[in-house]
Amino acid sequence: MRSKLGISLLAVVVALSVTPADAALSAASIPAAFDELLSARALSNPAMILIDGTTGEVVYERNSYSQRKPASVMKLLAGVATLTYLDPQSSFTTNISLGLEDRTLIIQGSYDPWISLNHNVARKMKRESLPYLAFNSLSAIKKTNGGSLKKITVLYSGLYSQDVANLKSFWAKRGFKPSMKAVSGDEVLLNAASPIVSDTSPSIDEILDFTLKWSDNALAERLARLSSRAAGNAFNAAGVSETFTQILTSFEIDASKLVAVDASGLSKENRVTAQILGQLLFKVRKDEKYNLLYTSLPVGGVSGTLRSRFLTTAPNAIGLVRAKTGTLNGTVTLAGYVESTDREYVFVTLADEIPRGARAENQARAAIDRLLGRIAAPNIPTVISEAAPPP
After folding, report:
1. How does strand 115-116 pair with strand 128-129?
2. Where residue 389 falls among pLDDT bands split at 50, 70, 90?
3. What is the pLDDT of residues 314-329, one digit of tens each?
4. For a tag on the chain, would you pick the N or C end, based on fewer CB atoms within 10 A?
5. What kind and span of H or E run contains 211?
6. What is the DSSP string of 67-80?
7. What's the first-to-final CA gap in the chain, in angstroms?
8. What ranges make up the beta strands (E) of 282-342?
């Protein structure tokens, strides 16, 4: 029994130390194998690039200069913009006070991207709760004015238009319909009197981590706009596009084929090439400033939007792929990094010509998983035992 157990343990050790390396394709074998794998009907003529993460050598490419829909891999650009222009340790505070003048309410915002419309979700996720801020404000203004909610003016700054609309909707359902007036930050400060309620977001690095792991569209848009403003560009979609172009140019990447209509990847008008994203991922990986981008990416079979991937399609790749997912109707994308024995590869796969529907999307994801499974293998350091001294 003991002998069988010993043999079993030895087999496991050998399998772990030898099989993954043997199973992974060598760099020289990749082009022929990938040509065949990428010809799968499930992928419908995708664009792809594979780059050696150490040397920058392009090991494989197919349609890599072709403009494709990025879907949510566009958030990689939002992440790089955030780490380029914003302080990862900074946070956002929203203060609400009674005004110096009667019947005024003052909201001093800082364009907090973390505000949530759902109170229960906000508290569970430690997000700033808009209902919490709105309810406390309503109670205070009602108490101060003897129960009256008539002829109230709200002076505010630093709020997204959507948050203003959500506040108005929340209050209207409770019979409070104030006059909303956007003012400057200085005017808000000058008119604030007795504090009512205040809330502070987590730091930007925590917000970005959540954004990338769970592909949050609203957070990506807001972080990108904050980055655009910090870069000296407009606080809108046009400013975000200009900011993305500036970033690529700073990395000496040709941005002429980038079309950025939004930062989340929701628009089907967005366009990018596998080459642009691949070169960006390669260059930021070598810069410690962008390490958070790498650590925030979902891990295959383990976390975020990749938690259910590779489990059955390519089990040997579990834990070895860090990547941003992307999905639109007719589009499945994946871009990031894969560990492969003695190296790390940067990869980008953009399959935006697949049939519409969940079945086609699932088949495309499985095909991409299997593709990465052919090169994924853990880095196992070689251990050389010292020879025993002669007797």
Report:
1. parallel
2. low
3. 999 999 999 999 999 9
4. C
5. helix 204-214
6. -B--GGGGHHHHHH
7. 35
8. 321-328, 331-340
The bridge status of strand 343-351 relative to strand 331-340 is antiparallel
pLDDT mean over 368-384: 81
Residue 217 carries which side chain, given as an amino acid letter? N
High-pLDDT (> 70) share of the chain, %: 90
Q: Which residue has 């197919």 as its token pair?
A: 62
How much of the chain is in helix, strand and coil states, percent to nearest 5?
Answer: 45, 20, 35
Query: What's the CA dihedral at 58, 63, 65, 70 to 10 degrees?
Result: -100
Name the token pair of 251.
Answer: 């990395």
CB-CB contact of 34 with 48 (8 Å): yes
Select from 147, 179, 155, 159 the least CA-distant residue to 100.
Answer: 155
d(C-alpha 285, C-alpha 56), whole Å: 11
Whether the Cβ atoms of residue 220 and residue 78 lie closer than 8 Å to each other? yes
Nearest by Cα to 349 from 77, 75, 78, 69 = 69
| Tokens coding 54 | 């150490």
Q: Are 306 and 326 in contact (CB under 8 A)?
A: no
Q: Which residues pair with 157 in a beta bridge?
A: 108
Q: What is the DSSP letter of 197?
A: E
Q: Is the predicted pLDDT of residue 83 greater than 90, yes or no?
A: yes
Q: Whole-angstrom Cα distance, residue 359 to residue 157?
A: 46
Chain centre distance of CA 114 = 14
165, HSE (Cβ side, Cα atoms, 13 Å) = 3
Q: How many residues does the chain have?
A: 391
Q: What pTM, to 2 d.p., does this model score?
A: 0.89
pLDDT for 248 beyond 80 = yes
**CA proximity to 226, closest of 211, 369, 370:** 211
Contact 347, 50 (CB under 8 A): yes
| Number of C-beta neighbours around residue 185 at 10 A | 12
CA dihedral of 117, 119, 121, 125, whole degrees rounded to 10? 100
The whole-number pLDDT of residue 2 equals 41
